[in-house]
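User: ADP-dependent (S)-NAD(P)H-hydrate dehydratase, Clostridium aminobutyricum:
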Amino acid sequence: MKNQGLITEEYVNTVIKRRKRDIHKGDCGKVLLIAGSFGMAGAAVLCGWGALRSGAGLVRIAVPEELFTIIQVSVPEATCIPRTSLNMDLRQYDAIAVGPGLGEDSNNAELIKTILAGYDKTLVLDADGLNQISHSHLFEQLKKAACKVIITPHIGEAARLLQIRPSEAKKMERQELAEHLVQATNAIVVLKGEGTIVAMPNSDSYTNTTGNPGMATGGSGDVLTGIITALAGQGLEPEDAAKAGVYIHGLAGDLGTESFGEYGLVARDIASMSALAIKKIMG
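Assistant: Predicted structure for ADP-dependent (S)-NAD(P)H-hydrate dehydratase:
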């Protein structure tokens, strides 16, 4: 890696801007979250809350129609659309996320191909979105994407992307693992874990300085995807959205742990605390 550094509060404070008095919801980012499947509706809910609590003005969640009631009751501030309607113009969205709880439907691979080829803003790929890249061998499409891509793998997803065993990935230095992922995908890589690393295609990398073991809980990554997508949708450059997103996510976990401890912290706490994290950063 060319340049290495830390992600600090001082840095995040420079990229999160105070809002103008005459702003409206359309100025705060319209984001699309393609998430959720039968048995995994919670992933879409948590991703939605992460986006809303991080300032997205309009959040639309694309789910199977049988999940509409769950989503609309759990995240009333968001709107729902059926995934079958995604042949519409995706360029209306300021950022798109694909993956949390998406499931392994083979149609998802075609959807990801379409977005990679035809969307020109910021795309965040997580969870089953990354698994589709691995299983359907979409690496060339990913490398040639028309959009800026941020991927957010944990170590198991990283191993699948690199087509190595998880045990091999665990033996590698995390910095080296992140570098290999950048080379394989040409994406901005958010390698989750202790000291989350954000690695760039230009060879720069940054290590996060917030977070704690209490964040090792189901749904935490879904919240992170929502946060990063919201920040990108509000106009942050993809590199800044990734770095600021992991810092805010970690700080939200730290604030949540003050109330619930490391054993009691759950993903919905992290989503809620992300708003307080941003407030703290902005002073």
